[in-house]
Every structure is written in structure tokens, then in C-alpha cells.
Amino acid sequence: MAKRIVVFFSLMILSFMVQAQVKIHSHNDYTHPKPFYDAIENKAFSIEADVFLVKHTLIVAHSRKEIKGKNTLEKLYLKPIRALSKKDKYYTFQLMIDFKDNFDLTYPVLLKALKKYKNSFEKNGMKISVVISGNRPADSTFHQYKELFFDGLPNHQYPSEDLNKVVMISDNFATYSKWKGVGEISDQDKEKLQKVINDAHQIGKPFRFWNAPDYEACWELLCSLGADIINTDQVATATNYFKTN
Predict the structure, then answer these.
(1) What whole-number distance in Å separates Cα of residue 55 and Cα of residue 236?
(2) What's the predicted TM-score (pTM) here?
(3) Are 88 and 42 in contact (CB under 8 A)?
(4) How far apart are CA 191 and CA 215, in angstroms?
(5) For the residues 214-230, what does the mean pLDDT come to?
(6) Burial class (CB in 10 A: 0-12, 13-18, 19+), 242
(7) Cα(152)–Cα(176) distance, rounded to whole angstroms?
(8) Cβ proximity of 169 and 200 under 8 Å
(9) Are 241 and 216 in contact (CB under 8 A)?
(10) Closest Cα to residue 224, out of 242, 200, 240, 239?
(11) What's the rounded Cα separation, in Å, for the pair 51 and 4?
(12) What is the percent of the chain where pLDDT is above 90?
């Protein structure tokens, strides 16, 4: 009984610490009125871009039918990062690139693009990490990619050298609950959400749900459960919410 009480209060303390440090992940950033700059202006911790490989070029789009040749990763993100690096000290954030096509085909194209902007990713006190999500290589090979980090998955037993390359654990909210952000969520669903968050914390990683209801009620719920990173399409609104609550 005493051991259970100690564990309970340890989790409560951990949850409080996480809540105080909640970070914002700019989901589908390229769909915002000012891609990249909306996130930067609100000092988002993480900025996400989905990419497709089209004739040796990385095109940013949510789905293949939305592909437009002008929306390259270079134009929407790499060039703005270079411009940002020329300014005085800014802040550190991560650029999450969600591979929609085969990793082995997409990776060499990304690596070539990043080399061109390498000096812009760590300059004037600003350090940008490149994190890969979506189609990733085998877990056991993460440590081989010196220039990249990875978005991790729950219930995976990562070897320590590969776990070091995982920056967060992420999962689909709908896997654990069908709650839409209106009314009360069931205690059973809360327990499932809490468990996957706690499991990530036990291996020393922050946690993020994607596909969660993008409303204040859900932001508050996830924060109270200890989720470290809030996934949102409403960067400014979410940022202001956590500043005032």
C-alpha cells in the first residue's frame, strides 16, 4: 500500500512538472496563413512539415492530391531558416519532417537539401534539430543517422543507442479515446491516455498526441494528464492559452 502511495505521488509531481513546461507543436504548419512564421512568432517548440518526393524534389503537402510544385521544403522552410539565422540570437526549436514516401528514397534527397543549409541550423545561439516522423527506418538503425533525430512510438523497446535519437513519443489520440472535446471524457479513457504518457516518461521521453480534439478542453485535459507537447493547428491561440492558464 505504501509503495502504491509513493508511486502515485511521484506521478503527480511528474505531471505537475510537465504541465509547467508544456510545449507547442505546430501541426500542419504549412496550412497556416504564414507558414513557418506563425510558429516562429509564437516561439513554437516544434514545427511540422509533411513532404512528398516528386522528381527528386521535396514538396510540402498534406496529401498527394494537394501537391503544388511551388511548395517546396526549401522555399517554405529551409530558406526562411537561413534568413532567420542571419538575425541576432533567436531560440532553439525542432523542424519535424513527416516522410510520406519511402524513407530510403526520400532520405538522400533531404540530406542533400540540408547540406546546402547546414550552417544555418546552428548559428547566433539558434540550434535547429531535424526530426523525422512518418516513414522511418528500422528502429535499430536510428543511431546511424548522425544528422537526424526521430519521432518515437509507444510500446517499442528501443536499444539505448537508438533511444538517444528519439526526441519524443507520439501517438494517435483516437487509438485511446473517441472523445471529441465536448462534454466529459470517460474515466476509462483517461486511464488509457495517462498510461501511455506515463510509459513515455518512464523511459525519459516527452509525449505528444496527434489527432486529438484541437480545443481548449482537450488542451487542458492533456496538460493535466502530463502530456509534454500539445499538437495544434492553432498555434497563437494555444500559446496564449497556456500563457494565461
Answers:
(1) 35
(2) 0.89
(3) no
(4) 20
(5) 97
(6) middle
(7) 17
(8) yes
(9) yes
(10) 242
(11) 46
(12) 80
